[in-house]
Write a structure and sequence with these properties.
Blueprint lengths: L1 H30 L11 H6 L2 H34 L3 H9 L6 H11 L5 H8 L11 H26 L2 H9 L4 H12 L1 H16 L3 H5 L8 H10 L4 H21 L8 H8 L1
């Protein structure tokens, strides 16, 4: 009887997955086999492997890796310091608050900050460097992307650090390990799942960015997300746009598999305890 009631509760979830996840993916896959004139073809898949789209794919992965790497470099020490503060939950709330603001509003805010007469250039002018072209550069694109995604990197790392058993760190120091050795051999291995979760949360959406590439990078950065937007909204070539989306979905799925939690994920902790 209990199993039947559980199955009933699963019905809304299964329906939501079927309508909002499975059906759109099947529609994208279906449209990928048609050209702009509505004729069935495999030409879209052959076109994807031309130099233009392959360069675009490499560029998308490169920028997504940069955004993820910079986010991790800032997020890990930030999350570590937060675990040592008194009002950690308040600080976490302040970090999460910007995620409640619309992405478009944040992008437009940086248009003003990085503009010719914006705050950033005023500071550069004040310290004697002079006005620089900050907008429509790789720097501005990566900076704004990291700013937008960094809360999603901090949160899982913070949770992993909070769950870390402090006695393991104390034991490492009692055995004569330096702070760096303790971090490298104890702290980081035991929080690597948080790093993986944060990397997923940043890398996957960074692959499909398109609005920031337009507003902040001024179309100097072309990603797969930008190409999908162009084909659906400008050229009206839904087939090619769907084909790019298919490969993007495959890349996202492979990323999730590569960074997913392994069954033996607690082995590291057991090894540390054994030592």
């Amino acid at each position: 009887m209990e199993n039947k009631s559980r199955n009933v509760y699963l019905i809304p979830y299964v329906l939501w997955i079927a309508v909002c996840v499975v059906a759109p993916i099947l529609m994208i896959l279906y449209y990928s086999f048609f050209d702009i004139e509505g004729q069935f073809t495999f030409a879209n898949y052959a076109k994807f492997f031309t130099p233009v789209y392959l360069r675009m794919t490499v560029s998308s992965f490169w920028y997504a890796l940069l955004i993820t790497a910079f986010s991790l470099l800032v997020a890990y020490p930030t999350a570590y310091l937060l675990t040592k503060t008194k009002h950690k939950q308040l600080w976490m709330l302040l970090i999460i608050l910007p995620t409640w603001i619309n992405l478009l509003l944040k992008a437009y805010a940086f248009l003003g900050i990085f503009g010719t007469y914006g705050a950033a250039n005023q500071i550069l002018d004040f310290i004697g460097i002079g006005t620089k072209q900050i907008l429509f550069t790789d720097f501005s694109f990566i900076f704004v992307s990291v700013y937008i995604f960094i809360p999603f990197m901090i949160l899982p790392i913070f949770n992993s650090l909070e769950e870390l058993n402090p006695t393991l760190v104390d034991a490492s120091r009692d055995l004569g390990a330096s702070s760096w050795t303790t971090f490298r051999r104890v702290v980081f291995p035991l929080t690597v799942e948080g790093v993986k979760s944060g990397s997923q949360a940043v890398f996957i959406p960074a692959l499909s960015l398109f609005m920031i590439t337009r507003l902040i990078a001024g179309n100097r950065v072309i990603t797969l997300g930008t190409a999908i937007e162009q084909h659906f909204l400008v050229t009206q070539d839904w087939g090619m746009g769907s084909t790019i989306a298919v490969f993007l979905i495959i890349a996202m799925a492979l990323t999730m598999i590569a960074t997913g939690r392994r069954k033996g994920g607690t082995k590291r902790e057991n090894d540390v305890k054994a030592v």
